Amino acid sequence: MKNLLLMIGFLGLLPTANAYIPPATYILNRIVQSHEHFKTIELDGVVTDLRTHQIFREVARIDFLSGKIQLMYLNETGSVIGDGHVKLNEIHPYGLAWYGVGLDSNAARVRGDLQALGITIKDEMGSKLTRLVGRPVWDIGETAILRVEKDQFAFAGLMENSNNEIQVLEFTGGGIPLPRILKFKKDGTDLFSYEMKSFRINIPYKSSFFASHAISLSGGASSDSSSIVGQATTQEWSSLVH
Predict the structure, then answer these.
(1) Is 236 helix (H, G, I), strand (E, B) or coil?
(2) pTM across the whole model
């Protein structure tokens, strides 16, 4: 009897034959709907090199209408150690997945981003319920796989293969679940983690972090010799994401 009860309990944890598996188009629409009012977003976070434990601050302003991203890197003392501009449709796959699929408010652009990542969303395309660091997620795709949080329908990661992957480990609270802590893996090695400290949506440029640091930018970014963060670290991060 005890074994029978254990077996019944185990079966209760499995999906039933009638369990609803949403199509990929529905999941995509739910992701986009949660960001439907986003025109710009400014992210302020901390990047950690998981091999050396060096840290630096990154501020990114993404303008979805113009497709432009503005970036600034600061060391632990607050000095600017790097800055730049990049176009959303030209960034590396990890950044395109995170910024484009994970944050953009336009369904057509998100479909284009997914196609650039090797994931073509079709009307008849299904999804698969799996797990990511203990949480249930929907997986979409075959070679490259988009991972979506099961209940919140939020971007949860991208898996190019078992050796190259972004994982969202934690989301922001409140009504809009945004990736808050992410881990970046390449060639089988955990390279970087990112922790978002704050975000601001649809603020005018004159109120942005970049406007208030215009003097630093106009003079060009320069290295601070007292910083423990080397230029190579920020450059490697940028080449991975941006």
Answers:
(1) helix
(2) 0.85
